[in-house]
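Hi,

I'm pasting everything inline rather than attaching a file, because the server keeps stripping attachments. The sequence lines come first, and each chain or strand is labelled.
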Amino acid sequence: MKIVLRNLTKRFPNRNKKEGGFVTAVNNFDFEIPDGKLVGLLGPSGCGKSTALNLISGLEKPTEGKIFFGEDDVTGLPPEKRGVGLVFQNYALYPHLTVRQNILFPLQNLRGTERPSKEKMEELALEAARMVQIEAYMERRPSELSGGQQQRVAIARALVKRPRVLLLDEPLSNLDARLRLQTREEIRRIQRETGITTIFVTHDQEEAMSICDLIVVMKDGMEQQIGAPQEVYDRPVNLFVAKFLGTPAVSVFEGEVREEKLYIGGNIPVLDVPGVADRPVTAAIRPEGFVPDTVGTLFCVLNRIEIMGRDTSVIATNSHCLNELNTLRAIVDTEEIDEGRMPGSNIISFRLKPNKTHLFDPVTEERIPFGAVPAAAKKTAVPAAAKKTTAPHLPDPVTEERIPFGKELSEKKKSVKHHEG
Amino acid sequence: MKDNNWKAWLYLLPALAFLGLFMVYPLVDVLVYSFEEGYNSASQTYFGTGLYNYSYVLHDPYFLQALKNTFILVIITVPLSTGLALLISLALNAIKPLKQLFQTIYFLPYVTNTLAVGLVFMILFKPTPYSDGLVNALIHVFGGNTVDFIDGPYWAKMFVLCFYTVWIVLPFKILILTSSLASVNEDYYKAARVDATPKWRIFTRITLPMIAPMIFYLVITGFIGAFKAYADAVALFGTDLNAAGMNTIVGYVYDMLYGDSGGYPSYAAAAALILFAIVLTITVINLMIRRKLTR
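And the predicted assembly:
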């Protein structure tokens, strides 16, 4: 079911009555959600995501604008007539009912010809339970289930009536980190299998990026950008979107464009930006956009290096960096770090990847596009990746202990010898 | 840890001493009195031991009247007051404007002085040389005859007593129920709305089970409170409740101790223990029903 929002606006009266006026939670939403897609409504806390979801579900009435499901105008319809399934952040499972009774609950509300026979209801409930793989716990109470299992029951309850649209409000925020990863894959799978247009609200950009077909980035009730996650990541329309997507976040610099070259402090250009007129700009650079290189021209003071499993982060300072404490964070190849370091000093120089550097107007914060990615930059990027030699791991199949090999083995022997000596 | 146990007992000692002196000892004493025949508190003597006191009390027409009165009172007022409180709380929970005002109004009887309440009931029910009371005035409007609610027929007096009891216990029950209704998570109702749940089903399948523990609490305390009724009857009918035929079990116990026919602590003790047995039985039944329903 395609969902179309037309100039959708929701204003609440200001809570502080003395001040009067209104708070606009959703401001002029005007976009389409294609049929059968998994869509993430993404934004920081209090940006109106949940209100937008409540408007689509019908729990809130819009101040202005219209909502269409397919060709039907559902703006005036109460939630029960819209055919939506809603999963709450705290699941809202009825604690005094068993899993089976919880899933049956929406079916038992049906009246007249819509109401299936008892056997049919049981069948539908079991089917929904199988879909979320909870059928082994049908006679349990919600309090006897883990958070992830409760989540599944809530989804099964929302699915059992075969809704046209499935809405999930922060579905993963009450789960621990490991379960969150697992459950989001689960949501992806369920959505694929049912083909139901699904909208879920989240403030976690990683969650949205990982499973969504489409993300809608929101700020202060305004839709900022809609697109496939990678597209939004690669081409953020404004500084807010650039900052909001990606962990670690972009590093922001004040800069200037002169003769189609980007300057960040000093008189040495750091990047070619063909097609941009001379002007001051704000540059946002993804952590993976920094490449330590002797020919690099962005000079920073190296603070420290953090190695966390597969990632190596360089934390450095540059006086033109607008991040907190002028500190930027770059994710680099371990082998490359030394290439950028000036011998005998703590200065590190970076070359910038043009496709990871975004320019914005310092005032409007809108994106300033610049020319095609220079071929030279691409070439140098390839060998850097090829250079990566991560040693594979060979655990013993039974004990699952590490079996050292190659270089590691000779190192180990050395240390053993050392002990003997 | 065991070596330190004496310390724990030391800390508990003050509480245990007071409880023992003022709770356990009197209770045991009452039990002992109830088996001592013809106990005289002045001379501290008695004739013998046995079940005579119980037999006397159970054959005393005044006690049987008190027992009947108490049971009628309990059976009428507990369900009625709980049901009314639930209805009023639901209404209070449903309205938005003036909610605070109504809550305050419904809570007023709880903080009102007993004598003031007595005055209100006098205006409502008591015939005086100048008027027949407000309720009788109303009855006249509808073409009925004057009913003497204070000195008249038994049903009229029982009606006033029940009315008074319900009125006096309502505020507390409303307070408890409105707060427990307000504590039900809004999301349950939202989920129910999205699932097109009819209103009555929301009430029976969601609201009621959610506040069931509080209802059970109110029913149990309501039973206990109604069985202990005494002061209300005195406020309405004066101290000579036997003459009015409106005595309650606790009233009977009091009369046996200090009333005009008093001076019989053994009978009082026996009556008190009978009351205890009744309350215990009812409470156990209540708890059993509760366990069955909430499983």
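Residues 61-293 of chain B form a domain with the MetI-like fold fold (CATH 1.10.3720.10).

If the labels don't parse on your end, tell me and I'll reformat.
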